[in-house]
Amino acid sequence: MARRSNKRAALVKAAREAFHELGPKRSTLSVIAKRSGVPLGNVYYYFKAKDDLVAAVIADLRAETEARLGACGEEEGALAQLAAYLAWKGERAETKARFGCPRAALAQELGRDQSRLADDARALLGVQQAWLSERFGEGERAAQLAEELHCAVLGALAAAQASADADLLRRRLARLESWVAARV
Q1: pLDDT < 70 regions, the chain
Q2: What DSSP character marks residue 18?
Q3: DSSP characters for 39-108?
Q4: HEC states along 89-148?
Q5: Model pLDDT, residue 114
Q6: Do residues 132 and 82 touch, judged by C-beta distance below 8 A?
Q7: Which residues contact 105 (CB under 8 A, 6 or more apart)?
Q8: What are phi and psi of 91, to 5 degrees?
Q9: What is the pLDDT of residues 66-89, one digit of tens each?
Q10: C-beta atoms surrounding 173 within 10 Å
Protein backbone atom coordinates (compact mmCIF):
# COMPACT_ATOMS: atom_id res chain seq x y z
CA MET A 1 0.00 0.00 0.00
CA ALA A 2 2.84 2.41 0.83
CA ARG A 3 4.41 1.75 -2.56
CA ARG A 4 1.13 2.61 -4.26
CA SER A 5 0.84 5.91 -2.39
CA ASN A 6 4.51 6.71 -3.15
CA LYS A 7 3.87 6.35 -6.87
CA ARG A 8 0.69 8.39 -6.62
CA ALA A 9 2.57 11.10 -4.71
CA ALA A 10 5.37 11.02 -7.30
CA LEU A 11 2.80 11.52 -10.07
CA VAL A 12 1.18 14.46 -8.26
CA LYS A 13 4.59 16.06 -7.61
CA ALA A 14 5.65 15.60 -11.22
CA ALA A 15 2.32 16.97 -12.45
CA ARG A 16 2.63 20.02 -10.17
CA GLU A 17 6.05 20.79 -11.61
CA ALA A 18 4.95 20.16 -15.19
CA PHE A 19 1.78 22.24 -14.79
CA HIS A 20 3.84 25.10 -13.37
CA GLU A 21 6.42 24.98 -16.13
CA LEU A 22 4.25 24.00 -19.12
CA GLY A 23 0.67 24.52 -18.01
CA PRO A 24 -1.86 21.70 -17.64
CA LYS A 25 -2.84 21.64 -21.30
CA ARG A 26 0.72 21.17 -22.58
CA SER A 27 1.65 18.73 -19.82
CA THR A 28 0.95 15.37 -21.32
CA LEU A 29 0.58 12.23 -19.26
CA SER A 30 3.70 10.98 -21.01
CA VAL A 31 5.72 13.95 -19.73
CA ILE A 32 4.32 13.52 -16.23
CA ALA A 33 4.99 9.78 -16.22
CA LYS A 34 8.58 10.32 -17.37
CA ARG A 35 9.21 12.99 -14.70
CA SER A 36 7.72 10.81 -11.98
CA GLY A 37 9.49 7.60 -12.95
CA VAL A 38 6.13 5.81 -13.14
CA PRO A 39 5.54 3.88 -16.39
CA LEU A 40 2.97 5.58 -18.61
CA GLY A 41 0.72 2.53 -18.60
CA ASN A 42 0.55 2.65 -14.80
CA VAL A 43 -0.63 6.27 -14.64
CA TYR A 44 -4.21 5.15 -15.31
CA TYR A 45 -4.04 2.84 -12.31
CA TYR A 46 -3.73 5.93 -10.10
CA PHE A 47 -5.75 8.44 -12.14
CA LYS A 48 -8.55 7.38 -14.48
CA ALA A 49 -8.35 10.62 -16.46
CA LYS A 50 -6.08 13.65 -16.71
CA ASP A 51 -8.75 15.75 -14.98
CA ASP A 52 -8.41 13.47 -11.94
CA LEU A 53 -4.69 14.26 -11.87
CA VAL A 54 -5.41 17.99 -12.21
CA ALA A 55 -7.85 17.73 -9.30
CA ALA A 56 -5.19 15.95 -7.23
CA VAL A 57 -2.69 18.73 -7.98
CA ILE A 58 -5.23 21.38 -6.95
CA ALA A 59 -5.91 19.48 -3.72
CA ASP A 60 -2.17 19.22 -3.08
CA LEU A 61 -1.68 22.94 -3.72
CA ARG A 62 -4.61 23.74 -1.42
CA ALA A 63 -3.17 21.61 1.38
CA GLU A 64 0.21 23.28 0.95
CA THR A 65 -1.39 26.74 0.84
CA GLU A 66 -3.34 26.12 4.03
CA ALA A 67 -0.26 24.70 5.76
CA ARG A 68 1.91 27.64 4.72
CA LEU A 69 -0.71 30.16 5.76
CA GLY A 70 -1.06 28.30 9.04
CA ALA A 71 2.69 28.59 9.60
CA CYS A 72 2.58 32.32 8.76
CA GLY A 73 -0.30 32.68 11.21
CA GLU A 74 1.85 31.36 14.05
CA GLU A 75 3.91 34.54 14.01
CA GLU A 76 3.24 37.06 16.77
CA GLY A 77 0.89 39.76 15.51
CA ALA A 78 -0.63 40.65 12.17
CA LEU A 79 2.40 42.57 10.91
CA ALA A 80 4.74 39.62 11.49
CA GLN A 81 2.21 37.24 9.94
CA LEU A 82 1.94 39.39 6.82
CA ALA A 83 5.74 39.68 6.64
CA ALA A 84 5.96 35.88 6.79
CA TYR A 85 3.38 35.67 3.97
CA LEU A 86 5.45 38.03 1.81
CA ALA A 87 8.60 36.03 2.59
CA TRP A 88 6.79 32.87 1.46
CA LYS A 89 5.82 34.58 -1.80
CA GLY A 90 9.49 35.49 -2.34
CA GLU A 91 10.72 31.92 -1.95
CA ARG A 92 12.02 30.30 -5.13
CA ALA A 93 12.10 33.75 -6.76
CA GLU A 94 14.14 32.52 -9.73
CA THR A 95 11.61 29.80 -10.52
CA LYS A 96 8.71 32.22 -10.11
CA ALA A 97 10.46 34.75 -12.37
CA ARG A 98 10.70 32.06 -15.00
CA PHE A 99 7.28 30.39 -14.69
CA GLY A 100 5.13 32.71 -12.56
CA CYS A 101 3.01 31.88 -9.54
CA PRO A 102 1.97 28.21 -9.66
CA ARG A 103 -1.47 28.91 -8.18
CA ALA A 104 -2.27 31.92 -10.35
CA ALA A 105 -0.96 30.24 -13.50
CA LEU A 106 -3.13 27.21 -12.87
CA ALA A 107 -6.18 29.38 -12.19
CA GLN A 108 -5.54 31.40 -15.35
CA GLU A 109 -5.12 28.45 -17.66
CA LEU A 110 -7.98 26.42 -16.23
CA GLY A 111 -10.10 29.58 -16.10
CA ARG A 112 -10.30 29.54 -19.87
CA ASP A 113 -12.61 26.56 -19.45
CA GLN A 114 -15.69 26.95 -17.34
CA SER A 115 -15.37 23.85 -15.24
CA ARG A 116 -15.31 22.62 -11.68
CA LEU A 117 -11.52 22.44 -11.93
CA ALA A 118 -11.36 26.12 -12.87
CA ASP A 119 -13.49 26.99 -9.86
CA ASP A 120 -11.29 24.86 -7.60
CA ALA A 121 -8.13 26.52 -8.94
CA ARG A 122 -9.58 30.00 -8.41
CA ALA A 123 -10.50 28.98 -4.88
CA LEU A 124 -6.76 28.60 -4.15
CA LEU A 125 -6.44 32.35 -4.61
CA GLY A 126 -9.55 32.97 -2.54
CA VAL A 127 -8.08 31.06 0.40
CA GLN A 128 -5.10 33.41 0.40
CA GLN A 129 -7.19 36.55 0.08
CA ALA A 130 -9.48 35.48 2.94
CA TRP A 131 -6.44 34.81 5.12
CA LEU A 132 -5.02 38.23 4.26
CA SER A 133 -8.32 39.90 5.08
CA GLU A 134 -8.31 38.38 8.57
CA ARG A 135 -4.89 39.95 9.21
CA PHE A 136 -6.20 43.41 8.39
CA GLY A 137 -9.13 43.09 10.80
CA GLU A 138 -12.83 43.08 10.07
CA GLY A 139 -15.15 44.85 7.67
CA GLU A 140 -14.97 46.40 4.25
CA ARG A 141 -11.66 48.20 4.83
CA ALA A 142 -9.95 44.94 5.79
CA ALA A 143 -11.33 43.27 2.67
CA GLN A 144 -10.12 46.16 0.50
CA LEU A 145 -6.63 46.14 1.99
CA ALA A 146 -6.42 42.36 1.56
CA GLU A 147 -7.50 42.65 -2.07
CA GLU A 148 -4.99 45.42 -2.70
CA LEU A 149 -2.13 43.42 -1.17
CA HIS A 150 -3.15 40.21 -2.93
CA CYS A 151 -3.35 41.97 -6.29
CA ALA A 152 0.00 43.69 -5.67
CA VAL A 153 1.67 40.35 -4.91
CA LEU A 154 0.13 38.73 -7.99
CA GLY A 155 1.18 41.75 -10.05
CA ALA A 156 4.74 41.52 -8.74
CA LEU A 157 4.83 37.83 -9.63
CA ALA A 158 3.48 38.52 -13.13
CA ALA A 159 5.90 41.43 -13.71
CA ALA A 160 8.84 39.32 -12.53
CA GLN A 161 7.81 36.55 -14.90
CA ALA A 162 7.26 38.93 -17.83
CA SER A 163 10.71 40.45 -17.34
CA ALA A 164 12.40 37.21 -16.17
CA ASP A 165 13.72 39.21 -13.21
CA ALA A 166 13.76 37.57 -9.78
CA ASP A 167 15.24 40.73 -8.26
CA LEU A 168 12.17 42.66 -9.39
CA LEU A 169 10.03 40.27 -7.38
CA ARG A 170 12.26 40.68 -4.34
CA ARG A 171 12.19 44.49 -4.60
CA ARG A 172 8.41 44.65 -5.00
CA LEU A 173 7.84 42.31 -2.04
CA ALA A 174 10.19 44.43 0.12
CA ARG A 175 8.21 47.53 -0.80
CA LEU A 176 5.00 45.72 0.05
CA GLU A 177 6.37 45.03 3.53
CA SER A 178 6.60 48.80 4.03
CA TRP A 179 3.12 49.25 2.59
CA VAL A 180 1.77 46.64 5.03
CA ALA A 181 3.56 48.22 8.00
CA ALA A 182 1.83 51.53 7.28
CA ARG A 183 -1.61 49.90 7.26
CA VAL A 184 -1.62 47.33 10.06
Answers
A1: 1-4
A2: H
A3: -HHHHHHH-SSHHHHHHHHHHHHHHHHHHHHHHHHTSSSHHHHHHHHHHHHHTTHHHHHHH--HHHHHHH
A4: HHCCHHHHHHHCCHHHHHHHHHHCCCCHHHHHHHHHHHHHHHHHHHHHCCHHHHHHHHHH
A5: 72
A6: yes
A7: 19, 20, 23, 99
A8: -65, 145
A9: 999 999 999 999 999 999 999 999
A10: 22
